[in-house]
Structure formats: structure tokens, C-alpha cells
Amino acid sequence: MAWSAEGLLLAHSEPRSGAKPLVTVCGSVAARRDDAASLARAAREMRLADYRVSLLLDLTEYQMLVVEAPGVPPEELKAAVRWRVKDMLDYHIDDATIDVLDIPPDPNAPARGHSLYAVAARNELIAAHIARCQEAGIPLQVIDIPEMASRNVASLVAQPGRGVAMLCFTEQGGLLTVSFEGELYLSRHLNVTLGDLLEAGGLRENHFERVTLEVQRSLDYVERQFAFVAVAQLWLAPMPAAGALRDHLAANLYLPVNLLDLAEVFDFSRVPALTDVENQYRFFLPLGASLRHEAKAL
Fold first, then answer.
1. pLDDT tens for each residue of 50-99
2. DSSP per residue over 193-222, as a string?
3. 297 falls in which pLDDT band (50, 70, 90)?
4. Residue 210, exposed/middle/buried by CB under 10 A (0-12, 13-18, 19+)?
5. DSSP 221-237
6. Which of 75, 69, 113 is nearest to 298 (CA)?
């Protein structure tokens, strides 16, 4: 589930061997973060107690920080990372919840140090999300981030042995990810919203240029830092009027730029409304988050 301006967005999918993931639930419920009664009512209407629930944070609710992986035993990793990021936050480290995502190095290169992502969010924000769910009777199991949702969808369109870039836009801004073999290698938040991209005339062109420049810089960074990650294509997530941005990117980038139709990678037979691009835009990240599967933690 994820919060949006319209309320609570909900999506559920079931993995199927050799077939597209089947989307069984997808919809929005009128609820407000600060209204426990409306959230409890939504939980009852959607029977959320029957599910293993994950909550997707907004882009503005956390930070992604790149740090050198400390050479410590796994059980000491998070404590060591906290020490490394303490001066990178604009609030005290004691007020931060920290998790880590590994950035695997080239398996064919000589062993050397590598980096990881530290995901940082304020304790009070995480505690507020948990408290809301507990009060509403929602069995919250996981708090997730949009990068993982984007990575999950990218894995459905990735070519074997090649990296894949995914670009999407939310109410808070844009998100560019680059993943390879199911691992996240780059996350870049863009200060451009869908509203910016729908403006008329020269304003829209300026935003297109900003997005293109950020994508170019990001792909150049991946090429320099992770030469073994050969990015084969850039996918533009569903959004209204995506064709114009796709054409602009394709004219200025050195790799293919494709428009993503989620109906090509999900089975929407139970929720046919998701064949509409507007709905695919609204639910892109919740659908991606629904693909989450548990892996060993660092």
C-alpha cells in the first residue's frame, strides 16, 4: 500500500512460475493519514488483515546515501554504517532509522572494497507509520522504498546479462534506477514532477532538457563506476502523454528508450481497468512493491 493525494493505493499480485504475475487486487480507498477512523474503515473494506502488508514510503520521506562498505562482520554492519552516515544527515543520527542495500562489485574483478546504499529515515516518521497501521488493525510487515518497487518491475523486462534503466514520475518528483541481475546499482531522485512534464510550450521543453541531462549524467556515472553493468535500454514507466518525453529522450540518448505497458508484464485479467495508462501511472509503484520477495538481509 502507498499514500497518495487521493488516499490509500492498494495492490496485490501473485507470482506464477512461467507466467506473468497475476494482479488480484488494485484500487484506491478514500483515507487520510491523520484520520485513524478512515484508515480503519479502509482496512475493513479491503480486508487488509488477510494480507501480508507492506507500506511504500514517499520519495520525500527518506534519503539514499552511498557509502563505502565497512569491513566488519555482518552483525556489525548496520552499526558501522550508522557511524559513517552520521555527518551526512541534517538531523541527529540517534533520530534516524538506517537500513542498507549492498551494491555488488564486479564478480570477475580482483577483490576490493565496494559501496552500499544506506537508506535513512527519521525515527518519528517510521514510528508514525507503524502506529497508524497498528491502530487501524493493518498487519504491517515491511516498510519499503520506491527504488525497490522500480527495481522489481525492471527485473520483468531486463535482458539476461544486461543492465536496465527505469524512469518513473510521482507526485513528489522523478525516480531513475539502474539495476543489473536483480540488484540496484543506481538511484537518482529528480526534482521534476508529472505536472512539470505536462506544462505547455517552452516550460515543458525546459523540464524535458533537465530530465535528459540527469539521465545522461546518471548513465555516464554507471558506465564509469560499474563498467560490467552494460545498460541495454531505458524504460519510461506509464504516464499521461509519455510519448513526447520518450521521443525527446530517444533523440538525445545513445540507448533505446521504450514506453512500458504494464499489461505486457502483469496479468490484468481480474483488474481490466489497469489496461488504462492513467491507472498504470497511479499504481506503477504499488504494483512494483507487490512483487517483493524476501531475501537474506545484510
1. 999 999 999 999 999 999 999 899 899 999 999 999 999 999 999 999 99
2. -HHHHT--HHHHHHHHHHHHHHHHHHHHHH
3. very low
4. middle
5. HHHHH-TT--EEEEEEP
6. 75
3-state class of 188 per DSSP? strand
**Whose CA is closest to 214, among 239, 243, 234, 240?**
234
Q: CB of 100 within 8 A of CB of 116?
A: yes
285 CB-near residues (< 8 Å, 6+ apart): 2, 56, 146, 149, 150, 168, 170
What mean pLDDT value characterizes the chain?
94
Residue 44 is placed in which grid cell? 475493513
* Alpha-carbon span 233 to 199, nearest angstrom: 27
Q: Which residues pair with 174 in a beta bridge?
A: 169, 190
Query: Helix or strand or coil: residue 143?
Result: strand
pLDDT digits (tens, 9 = 90+) for 161-183: 999 999 999 989 999 999 999 99
The number of C-alpha atoms within 13 Å of 38 and in the hemisphere containing its C-beta is 11
pLDDT tens-digit series, residues 69-80 = 998 998 999 999
Spatial CA neighbour of 169 closest among 115, 238, 251: 238
Residue type present at position 54: S
Phi-psi region of 201 (alpha: psi -120 to 50; beta: other; left: phi over 0): left
pTM of the predicted model as reported, rounded to 2 decimal places:
0.95
Return the C-alpha cell found at 112. 576490493
Could you please report the per-residue DSSP string of 220-286? Answer: HHHHHH-TT--EEEEEEPP-TTHHHHHHHHHHH-SS-EEE--GGGTSB-TT-GGGGSHHHHHHHHHH
